[in-house]
Design a protein that fits this description.
The chain has 200 residues and is an alpha/beta fold. The protein has helices at residues 5-8, 18-33, 39-50, 55-62; strands spanning 80-86, 89-92, 101-107, 110-114, 124-132, 135-139, 145-148, 151-153, 156-159, 172-176, 178-180, 183-187. It folds into two domains: 5-70; 80-198, no CATH class.
């Protein structure tokens, strides 16, 4: 039984709502936390959930999983995630699942994040970028629309792209947070992006 079981006897051609997609994401998150899905399976199904159009697209994604309403909660949440670098250097890239609200924090360290291949849970994602005496560099997908709502005090802050994404249907990334005596860079194009492992 899945959270969408009631729809299976109804009209599965009905268009899915954001709430429907979020319910599926919660079931998938619980399945990942309890070991029923691998991280790759979770990423594949989550991406399919947030790109689905109809209820019929969603039903198969949780058909082999139990309804989380009947299972004990593990405290897993796909809504918020935090990645921090404290007196260290942290790099995250490739395929990974970001939270709807992702907090990135660099304190006397360097945090380098690539979202170009990440699975974004929804059409709007908030990145809270906090840098204190540290460096925080983020690459967003090329079709992303970026809105900068952050601030800087005695820092360098560069958010490229503004809200003029190439694709009007691309994800909306809202950048918040504060830099103090640090550096925050958010870029989209390859021209102003240099991965540490690409350096020669």
């Amino acid at each position: 039984m899945s959270s969408l079981t009631p729809y299976e006897s109804g009209d599965i051609t009905q268009r899915a709502s954001d709430a429907d997609r979020d319910r599926i994401a919660a079931v998938l998150g619980e399945a990942l936390a309890t070991g029923r899905l691998t991280s790759v399976e979770h990423a594949d199904r989550l991406e399919a959930a947030y790109t689905s159009v109809t209820i019929g697209d969603l039903v198969p994604l949780t058909r082999d999983l139990p309804d989380i309403a009947t299972q004990p909660s593990t405290g897993f949440s796909a809504e918020q995630q935090e990645v921090a670098a404290v007196f260290s250097k942290v790099i995250r890239g490739g395929r990974w699942v970001a939270g709807r609200h992702t907090v990135l924090r660099s304190t006397f360290g360097a945090l380098i994040i690539d979202l170009s291949d990440a699975v974004l849970p929804g059409r709007e994602v908030t990145l809270e970028l906090n840098s204190f005496c540290g460096k925080l560099i983020v690459r967003v997908p090329e079709d992303a629309r970026v809105i900068d709502e952050g601030s800087a005090i005695f820092s360098k802050r560069h958010v490229s792209g503004g809200d003029q994404g190439r694709d009007a249907n691309g994800p909306l990334i809202r950048v918040t947070g504060r830099a103090m005596f640090g550096k925050v860079v958010v870029s989209r194009g390859a021209a102003d992006w240099h991965w540490p492992w690409h350096a020669r």
